[in-house]
Amino acid sequence: MDTGSAFDLAVVGLGPAGRAVASRAAARGLSVLALDPRPEAVWSPTYGIWGDELNELPESVVRARVAGPELRARRRHTLHRDYLVLDNLALQQALPLDAVEVRRARLEDADLVDLLGSRPGQARVVVDARGARPEGHLPDDPAPAQTAYGIVVPAEDAAPALDGAAGLLMDWRTDWADEGDRRGTPTFLYAIPLGQGRVLLEETCLAAAPAMTIPELKRRLRRRLVSRGIRPAVVDAPLEREIVRIPMRGRGHGPAEGILAVGTAGRGGNLVTGYSVAHSLRHADELARAIGTGLRGEGRLPSEIDPTGPGDLLREMGLRALLRLDVDGTLELFEAFGRLPVQAQRDFMSRDSTAPAMASAMWGVFRRMPPRAKRALVAATLGPSRGRLSRSSARIPLEG
Ligand SMILES: Cc1cc2nc3c(=O)[nH]c(=O)nc-3n(C[C@H](O)[C@H](O)[C@H](O)COP(=O)(O)OP(=O)(O)OC[C@H]3O[C@@H](n4cnc5c(N)ncnc54)[C@H](O)[C@@H]3O)c2cc1C
């Protein structure tokens, strides 16, 4: 390919989304420059994906496999899919950067625009993969966010929390609350074995605007775990801690003119679950191929990644409901979700499901809810926000 001395592609940010695109593009013969302030760092979050989302990735990237994790709402539901915890180092090794020119750098928006071009040192395509908040998280960010506080403890100590389940994807029972007082924003327990005798126990607020604070999540987790019989000393001195902050709408605005945004820098996150990793990994090669084809003049270069489609409008409705439902409404919603057929559960949770599949899954949830909960869901989807109103939560845009 005749590129002069410009790179074919520059990828800014080497999280899962950026690394996957950089690696796949280099494997397809493109000259690739990748920039990140810590390019050698092993990703620290505990990433989970479903077994059927592994696609062509090798089994070595799986740190732990949980067969049939459970969902608890009013009742106990087994989700008939394997849930995988990824081994981040192995995943990074499965996305090699040997053929990529990697540089240590932190780039601002304007730097990405300067990088775009056909002069030496520039790149003909620039992909922004700097994540949702390249400038860091703002303490008073009004945007809807998922937050969680988690601890890693020995499996034998975690057993009372799991209550016989292989893993708990979402346990919506309300033992986080003071006796008889279940007001406030709903949260759930995520309890997943990590392998090597360790379990992650994480109190999660699926979505709130502004985000639920970490001290509140920590308080709820402690109350919940101690009430299930876990010793306070185990809760207070865990092997590790994890803090999760996921802006549900990603960055909330598009990239600069001419720049492509991938992963949570763009629209790669699922508005309902906050997850993005499976989607980014799945589409990286397709994106690399499209860029290669476009650069060779054999097709059009992509002008946008993850363009808004009707499925996103439905997921936005789902996010609106999650932001507004109270504890009982949320319990009924997930009780109905737990009773869906497995394909509909997959469609509800996947960033890749089509609008008809998403609509059908949402309808399946709705029609399984009792009448009072249905009314609450309609009111939540159309009505005012729960809790403090913020500009962005009061006026939920249907686009980014
Ligand atoms: C603790 C935690 C757990 C999560 N668990 C899951 C999960 O189980 N499953 C799931 O699908 N999602 C999960 N998420 C949500 C989401 O998928 C992740 O945030 C994921 O890391 C997003 O990948 P990304 O590549 O888009 O962005 P990031 O992972 O945020 O990567 C961005 C990269 O850009 C670099 N960068 C930042 N600023 C600059 C700059 N100015 N210049 C150059 N480089 C820059 C960073 O160093 C980083 O390497 C989790 C998030 C957190 C925080």
Care to give the gist of this entry?
By secondary structure, the chain is α/β, with parallel strands linked by helices. It has helices spanning 16-27, 88-94, 109-115, 155-162, 214-227, 232-236, 277-295, 310-324, 327-338, 342-349, 355-367, 371-382, 391-394; strands spanning 7-12, 32-36, 48-50, 62-67, 70-72, 76-78, 82-86, 100-104, 123-128, 145-154, 168-171, 188-195, 198-208, 240-247, 260-261. The strands form 3 sheets. Strands 6-5-11-12-13-10-14 form a 7-stranded mixed β-sheet.
Any overview of this molecule?
By secondary structure, the chain is an alpha/beta fold. It has 3 domains: 7-39 and 97-132 and 250-295, FAD/NAD(P)-binding domain, CATH 3.50.50; 51-89 and 138-248; 310-394, no CATH class. It is built from 13 helices and 15 strands. The strands form 3 sheets. A 7-stranded mixed sheet has the order 6-5-11-12-13-10-14. Strands 8-2-1-9-15 form a 5-stranded parallel sheet, sandwiched between helices. A 3-stranded antiparallel sheet has the order 3-7-4. The longest helix is centred in the C-terminal third of the chain and has 19 residues, at 277-295. The protein starts with 6 loop residues before the first strand and ends in a 6-residue tail after the last helix. Mean pLDDT is 93; it is low at 387-400. The protein binds flavin-adenine dinucleotide. Residues 12-18, 35-38, 45-48, 106-107, 129-131, 134, 242, 244-246, 263-265, 268, 274-278 line the site of flavin-adenine dinucleotide (FAD).
